[in-house]
Amino acid sequence: MGLRTYINDHFIKDIVPYKPVKLSKPKKMLEIVSAWKGLEMIIADIIERFGLKNESCIEFGVEFGYSAVVFSNYFKSVTGVDTFEGDIHTENKAEHFQETSNRLAEYQNIVLVKSDYRDWIKRDNKRYDLAHVDIVHNYKETFECGLWAAQHSSCTIFHDTESFPEVRRAVKDIAAETGQKLYNYPYHYGLGILVDKKSIGKK
Question: Is 35-201 assigned to CATH 3.40.50.2300?
Fold first, then answer.
C-alpha cells in the first residue's frame, strides 16, 4: 500500500478536496529552492473564495522566506515567526535569521521575528486574516500551534498534509475542536485549509 493510498483510506474521508477556480502567480516572487513552490498559485483563489480581508497574515515557519514573500503580495502586513535554526525534518540546521532578514529586506511589509511559536502565542492576542503553519511536522507541535492559529485567524493553512500523516491528523483534530470547515489541496506536498466561516460571516 502506497503512502497516498494509506492517507486517503485513513485520513481523507471527512476532508473536502480543494479545487481552485483559477491559478494565478503573484507579481513578487523569491527565486529560491522551496518545497512550497506551486502553492503560490492558489493563494489569491483562497482569499477570493472565502472573502478574506487583506490586512494581516502570520506565518509560523518561515525558513528561507519563499512563502512569506508570496503572502506579502496579498496582505498589508506579514509577520513571520521562526527559530531560524531548522528542526528534525529540515536539511538546514544552521542559524539563518540574519541571512533570511537580508534576503527579505526589500519586502517592507514583512516583519521577521526570531522566536519559538510557544513563546509567541503566549503573548499575542491579535486576530489575523490568514495564518500559515509550517513548523516541525509532528502532531503535538502542529496541533498546539495550529489550534492557536485557527482561534486567531479567519483562515489557517497547513503545509505538508500529504507528506506527513501526523500533520494531517493534527489538522483534522483542530477542525473537530474548532468546528471549522476543512479542505485539502493535495499537490506540492499538500495544503490543509481551515476556514472560520462564522468569523468571516461577521465582517
Answer: no
